[in-house]
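User: My advisor, Dr. K., asked me to get a structural model of this assembly before our group meeting. I'm new to this, so sorry if the format is off. These are the inputs:
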Amino acid sequence: MRAAAILAVILIAAVIGPWFLPWRFDAIDWSAVRAAPFSGSHILGTDSVGRDQLARLLTGTRVSLGIAGAAALVALIIGTFWGAVAGWCGGWIDAAMMRLVDALYALPFMFVVILLMVVFGRSILLVFLGIGAVEWLTTARVVRAQVMALKVRPFILASEAAGASAPQIVARHVLPNIFGVILAYLLITIPQVVMVESFLSFLGLGVQEPLTSLGLLVKEGVDDMDIAPLALILPCGVLMMLLICLTLLGERLRGRLSA
Amino acid sequence: MSLYQVEGLGVGVVDRSLVHDVSFALEPGECVALIGESGSGKTLTGFAPFGLVDGVRLTGSVRLSGQELIGTTEVKLRETRARDVGFAFQQPLTALTAHRTVAQHLVESGAAHDRQVLRALLADVGLMGDGLADVLRRYPHQLSGGQRQRVMIACAIARAPKLLIADEPTSALDAESRAGVRALLRRLRKTRNLGVLLVSHDLAEVAQDADQVVVLHQGRAVETGPTRDVIARPQSVYARALLGVGGAESALPIRREGGTAKLRRERRNTHTPLLSAHDLHVSYRQPGWRGHRLKAVDHVSLEITQGEAVALVGASGSGKSTLARAIARLGPCDSGKVLWRGELLPPRHKLRTSQRQHIQPVFQDPVASLDPRWRVCDVVAEPLRAFAPDLTTAERDARVLAALEAVELGPDYTERRPQTLSGGQAQRVALARALVSNPEMLMLDEATSALDALTARAIVALFMRLRTERGLAILMITHDEPLARSLCNRIIRLEAGRIISTDS
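Assistant: The format is fine. Below is the predicted structure of the whole assembly, which you can bring to the meeting.
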């Protein structure tokens, strides 16, 4: 429960926090470049070009979470669809679909994402499409296994006898019964995606200036580590709390559903 | 002071009480049986005081050798479980760990890691002798069901406990190993002065083995006392009913002669049969690379006329379920034709919705055949959505209520979920779902074999009534010949996928 509470505080701060600050994340205060924390209206000080650190931290969290949520959702939709079709149909359809998943698994996916960036240019849309397109593989495997386990249960056969068509059975009986597992995997996928996004941004391939994200903030923090340690510690701390809380919640949900 | 004394034991979950006010006492060397139908709380009463059931609230007092178990710490309970009590479970295959040998199991249970000790322990449970020299090195899958159960009992008594709690220790075994395990328990009681708490639904077993019995019904002890007295002079209505179901034959409501003769006459008058299957053949591909095909149903033909009840009888693996599913178009079918009133039924995946409606199934496991997330009213309404899509909501609700009434369930069941139903209630709901679209034939796939004797009798009576009221044809799959005899006009015996005899 503590994990949920901390997560809620971070979420609320990231979503509505920026509106209550006097500075926007990209506004430059020429009178206060590299200001120390608690100087004037800059609670956490400013960075090397005079932008408010608190505004950047909150916006960065918001961007990271937004990309992660969207990418995880994309992964979930593709993965659920793919896994459900493969698990339900079985036979050679299943074999073909899952071999494709295996093949994609074998690709070094960071390399794929970087390649996409290079070919199509750097954009947020590509970041999350790229991540989502890779993260769906695990979801597909999990959903397929669940569907295969459910498919042989008598109530599915009873539903067939009751005249329901295959898509109707999947929509009415199969998916609702594995919804909990899907939700648990969403919660476990989000921190993974946050991690990947931060890593890409840290490398300079993800989110571009002046927009920011947790990974980009960490990178800037590293540059000024010796003079402004708080600029490194804070984004790292938020990132860590996010990952721990989301993973804990996801694990707990999964444990409860499988018990 | 008794070895094990239970006084006013209550077991509850968050909002409900599952076992109320159960009391009994067990002396060393004695056997007390907890008996009742599924869902009566007998397993809970046996296991919950030892902390083996999660998430329950315990009240009352349970003392083992004078030591109170309720309200004590988990550490103390664990000590008690390790030292003073042994447990034997119904499914010896799942209760043993697949990748560990018999010796490892025994050592884990507290036996000294010494060949002589382990051998003595195995000899004590009758697992020494010809062809069993290497039994310590065997894995669970290399043992028979009876041998596994003996290993589990050996584990349970490895630390020489004073009390053994055995949950249906024989009900997963065949008749011969069952007698062996029962004799073993009797011997251990005598030689080790071991108290045995036996959880069972098998009256014959209990009558012979137990000194005392506690009859549980809906979580209440409706009768407690010496076995002889309870069996000879049952006081409660429920215990009397339970004792009345000794043999399946005597309990069944309709005798063969009258109904069958009448139906046989009717059968002669009909021209086209309701359903006829010609030369059905079903095989499964065996696992493995280039696995050859296993014949499950081998060129079988049969006919069923209107209102006729036909039983398919055979051992497990004889292909009776596969055949019935092929006929109902709910399973695979390699070749052969199925005609419904002379009209060809296409194979499973090409069947039109209107053709699905003719034959409706009821399966063995009643709770598993209902979607756990659906309410009863939605479950029963499901066939109507497909077979009668034009109904208004009010009409559909009326049909659902009528179907529930036909299976003797009131309107207060409509909002319940499958988990809150007992096995018998769930099977009635499944039957209501089969009946709601007014089919002409029912396929009953071991529909009563997962139920206890009392519930099964009630469900069989319901089948009989519906059959006469609605003129339903029935294709029944069972391994219970007396049941098949009393309910059906014709009995078809299957062996290895072929019909070996037909009785009418």
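One thing worth pointing out at the meeting: Residues 250-285+293-503 of chain B form a domain with the Rossmann fold fold (CATH 3.40.50.300).

User: Perfect, thanks a lot.
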